[in-house]
Amino acid sequence: QVQLVESGGGLVQPGGSLRLSCAASGSIFGLYVMGWYRQAPGKQRELVADITSGGSTNYADSVKGRFTISRDNAKNTVYLQMNSLKPEDTAVYYCNADLQVVRGTLGYWGQGTQVTVSS
Fold this sequence. Notes:
Layout lengths: L2 E5 L2 E3 L5 E8 L4 E10 L6 E6 L5 E3 L7 E6 L4 E6 L8 E11 L2 E6 L3 E5 L2
Parallel strand pairs: 2-11
Antiparallel strand pairs: 1-3, 3-8, 4-5, 4-9, 5-6, 7-8, 9-10, 9-11
């Protein structure tokens, strides 16, 4: 069974840092775009950052200069380093990946990890 498993969320004070990880497991034959989304209470899910298999990155304006997305293709893992965190970064963060599996190329979501920025 193919799945994405996230880790690294938690409670942090404003100005602090967290690193999120998302590992893909199962019968995977290729990894394409991988990314992170977030959803705050009462708001729509929004793209935070994504990265292609070749390493090209894309960031939401609100996180540029503070967050860094990276990936380790050998480990089927994508990371999100979050620095200078602000209370408005509080949300559930979801990993998303386009994976080549037996049935073709499909999009998958992780279960989400809570990030809370508060003093």
